[in-house]
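Collaborator request, handled under Task 6.
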Amino acid sequence: MRIPESLRKKYKRQSTKTFTNAVETSSYADNITSVADKIKFDPFLFKKLFDGSLTKTIQHTESLIKKLTVQQIKAILMVGGFSESPMLQERVKSCFRGIDVIIPAEASSSILRGALIFGHSPTSISERVLRYTYGISIYTPFITGKHPESKRENTDSGPQCRDVFNKHVERNQNVKVGEPQVVKSYSPVNKNQKIIPFSIYASDMKDPEYTDVGCKFVGEMQIELQDRKIDVSRKVEVSLTFSGTEIEVKAKDVKTGKYEKASINFLG
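Structure tokens returned to the collaborator:
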């Protein structure tokens, strides 16, 4: 490994000894040698520097393979700069025997080229595995002993519990790009409520209970109910569609057929 001369001079100014002296008197003196403008490492020592990152990469890959949604994988495609490391390639091949390991030419630029292809042809990706659980903050009938009193709110629909997480899709779930996922119905909680807001939340948890515990706000949309008289039985259907790098949220007033759409960034 070449050590720039500017770094050597700076080290000498601040420590009063040369870089070579520092190497020779260090605890690594038996494994590192300073020669001209370079330092030479014994192979085992240099490989040891990568042990942590290699182990964590393998552990993370193993955890992904164990998940039900990706159990049937037949190949591992290695892309990105680290994928060009012979040490990583060797570790992946030895730990995942029976699975083909594919390393494309110029692996370090594969992600950039893939992004360009996706930009020109978004339909090139047909499915995604969701990183988060997504849902909508709702009111639900208050149940004494189950719901916290701090979330009780009196409405025309009776006592309601606010900030309840109503799940639409779950983390690690496969979703088809461009296709609406589950459609759920919502109703106003007060008579003559002209606007129903829909706040979208994401969570690392599989089944979050409340939107203010382990969840993060990702966006909001609302639909206006235009009739003169609105009752609490009015239905609005809401669906989430995952396309490109955004969630398309669509709310439809069942009575009138009117709908509203909003796009929310879901990559985080």
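The cover message to the collaborator said: "The chain has a mean pLDDT of 88. The helical segments are 5-15, 19-24, 43-48, 51-66, 86-95, 110-120. Please let us know whether this matches your experimental observations."
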